[in-house]
């Protein structure tokens, strides 16, 4: 069985990994994380390392890509 990399304490975007859970998702360890906004989120190793999850969902994706935009000038 391959060794699991310990991600505890590492930061991925706005998420800081708190602890490993006993859960598995598609064969990957699921980690309990805390977002900079204070919410908790769960993400698997693959999504954390690839950067496909960087927050708990507190930042809407459309705003994150474009930044703040004026609605009507």
Task: Give a count of the beta strands, DSSP E runs of length 2 or more.
Answer: 4
Low-confidence stretches: none
Biggest β-sheet strands, sense, barrel:
4 strands, antiparallel
Radius of gyration: 15 Å
The count of helical stretches stands at 2
Find the structural class using helix and strand composition: alpha+beta
Instruction: Going across the biggest sheet, name each strand in turn.
Output: 1-2-3-4
Q: What is the share of helical residues?
A: 10-25%
The ordered H/E elements are EEEEHH
Average per-residue pLDDT, rounded, comes to: 85
Beta-strand content:
35-45%
Shape: globular
What does this structure look like?
- This protein is α+β, with helices and mostly antiparallel strands and 73 residues long.
- It has 2 helices and 4 strands, in the order ββββαα.
- The protein has helices at residues 45-50, 61-66, and strands spanning 11-12, 15-25, 28-35, 40-44.
- A 4-stranded antiparallel β-sheet has the order 1-2-3-4.
- A hairpin with a 2-residue loop joins strand 1 (11-12) and strand 2.
- The mean pLDDT is 85.
Sum this structure up briefly.
The chain is an alpha+beta fold. It has two helices and four strands. Helix content is 16%, strand content 36%.
Task: Name some characteristics of this structure.
single chain; 73 residues; alpha+beta; 2 helices; globular
Q: In terms of topology, how is this protein built?
A:
Elements: E1 11-12, E2 15-25, E3 28-35, E4 40-44, H1 45-50, H2 61-66
Antiparallel strand pairs: 1-2, 2-3, 3-4
């Amino acid at each position: 069985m391959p060794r699991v990399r310990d991600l505890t304490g590492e930061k991925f975007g706005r998420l800081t990994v708190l602890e490993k859970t006993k859960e598995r998702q598609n064969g990957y360890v699921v980690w309990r994380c805390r977002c900079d906004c204070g919410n908790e989120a769960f993400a698997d190793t693959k999504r954390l390392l690839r950067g496909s999850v960087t927050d708990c969902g507190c930042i809407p994706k459309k705003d994150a890509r474009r930044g703040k935009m004026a609605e009507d000038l």
